């Protein structure tokens, strides 16, 4: 049996096609990078979720170990880890983000 926090993270990743682990919520991002990532996905119109890990250091630590990515936000699309907008902006510039999202949502 796995670690309960790891199991919770895996369940969240399975539940949401686009999942952002960040500081704050979708309605109230608590840092500029989380806000920027929310705005990034809002323009595509697909549903996404933001999980606030600011108040949950154990979960934040587990995510950093799992992804080998020390900073927030952490973006998962269709179960795959994609870093943050430092990774997604260049992908978007190459036209890679929209097809990825369409595939995730079966469009």
Task: Walk me through the structure.
With 107 residues, the protein is of the alpha+beta class. Helices cover 48% and strands 14% of the residues. The chain contains five helices and four strands, in the order H-E-H-E-H-E-E-H-H. It has a four-stranded mixed β-sheet, sandwiched between helices. The radius of gyration is 13 Å and the shape is globular. The mean pLDDT is 95.
CATH arch. level architecture:
3-Layer(aba) Sandwich
Low-confidence stretches: none
- Straight-line N-to-C gap: 35 Å
Tell me the strand order in the biggest sheet.
Answer: 2-1-3-4
Structural class: alpha+beta
Describe the global form.
globular
- Number of separate domains: 1
Helix content: 40-55%
Number of helices, counting only DSSP H or I runs of 4 residues or more: 5
User: Count the strands?
Assistant: 4
Enter the CATH topology name.
Answer: Glutaredoxin
Largest sheet: 4 strands, mixed
Write out the CATH superfamily name.
Answer: Glutaredoxin
Give the mean pLDDT.
Answer: 95
Strand content: 5-15%
Radius of gyration: 13 Å
């Amino acid at each position: 049996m796995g670690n309960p926090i790891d199991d919770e993270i895996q369940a969240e990743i399975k539940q949401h096609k686009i999942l952002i682990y960040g500081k704050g919520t979708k309605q109230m991002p608590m840092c500029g990078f989380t806000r920027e990532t929310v705005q990034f996905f809002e323009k595509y119109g697909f549903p996404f979720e933001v999980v606030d890990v600011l108040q949950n250091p154990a979960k934040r630590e587990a995510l950093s170990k799992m992804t080998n990515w020390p900073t927030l936000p952490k973006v998962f699309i269709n179960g795959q880890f994609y870093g943050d907008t430092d990774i997604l902006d260049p992908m978007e510039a190459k036209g890679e983000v929209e097809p990825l999202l369409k595939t995730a949502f079966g469009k």
